[in-house]
Amino acid sequence: MRLLSVLLVLACAPAGMAQTPSLWAQRAKVAQASAEERQAIAEAWTKSFGAGALAAGTAKPKVDGLLGLWAASGPEPCAVGEYDANDRLIRRQPMQRLTEGSPLQYVFVDLTNFTDHRYAIEVRSGDTWAVKLRSPLRVEYFPAHPDGLVYPGVPVGTVVKQPTWKSTIFAGTERDWWVYTPAQYSKDRPACVMIFQDGEGYMKWVAPMFDNLIHRGEMPVTIGIFISPGVIPKPGGQPVRNRSVEYDTLSDAYARFLRDEILPEVGKSLSLRSDAAARAIAGRSSGGICAFTAAWEMPDQFGKVCSTIGSFTNIRGGDVYPGRIRKTLAKPIRVFLQDGSNDLDNEHGNWFLANQQMARALAFKGYDYKFVTGEGFHSARHEQAIFPDALRWLWRDTNSRP
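^ that's the sequence the OP posted. Answer follows.
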């Protein structure tokens, strides 16, 4: 018996991209296919899954939204078993042969959203089932937001990678970063600014959203600054990541890094507004608490915060924020929060509980805030599905002109 462990995560298609091929269309086609068409499907699946893996019972499943496809090849009956976190069998779904007498067997499985189960390809041997492939399968599906797609006629902004930045505030670090400039930008009209931590992970899917919302006047003309966390180079070795130091530390260091290093550099070539209402800062996880810390420390510089699955936990003391918010005079900050009930729960704290505490503290002090909850895990999937709506909410009363 051979055991393989492969982590699979189901998600919505990336913004602007379609999932191909569609398993939903394949399931409908197989149900109505002629013998000749099924033979063509068998050839396509054998190529896609791999003949060797099918015969060994170790072919990785195909996934599309809330639908999975498992396949195996051989004379013995096969099935897919679904198990909970304690390896208790939930259900076993038998495979069926694609054509009469064919060794190729398959089963389409309707998946339950927001679950973290194990699926096993099993081969029947007498009265027992032998496991061939066991796949931890985290099911987290959110439909792609239409404002993340690319539409004809919508002016497209540019994203330009900047020279590697060597910081003085975070001495010894260097980082990659990028700047998005919307097509509507004019140097004689200072633009709003939105800064993203972990910027490389944001820029590809955020840029089309900016294009669409700016085009429709649903957010102001905004320069996007996408910044990666710093690393400390080590000649001949792996660089030391400085992410947690920069993001999770409760101090004004990161806000000063933006105010004194990054924003002046961007301002050399682009005309930027300097009022806090025209500056937003966003991030997820540790990048989320970093965004809040920057605004908390310098509300005169950053007036809008977007934190998703924010790490308001005790990684570096961030769990104190709800108490500080309650005991401090309210600051002029607009805050958008998002988190899911399946977020992390570990030695640092419970992420969902921490974000609920943040939301209640902001409400207690009368902040302009919004908290969107769901059942998601510690990922960007829910964030991507709602991000255009978050942008509209954050920028709802901000014009392009100061």
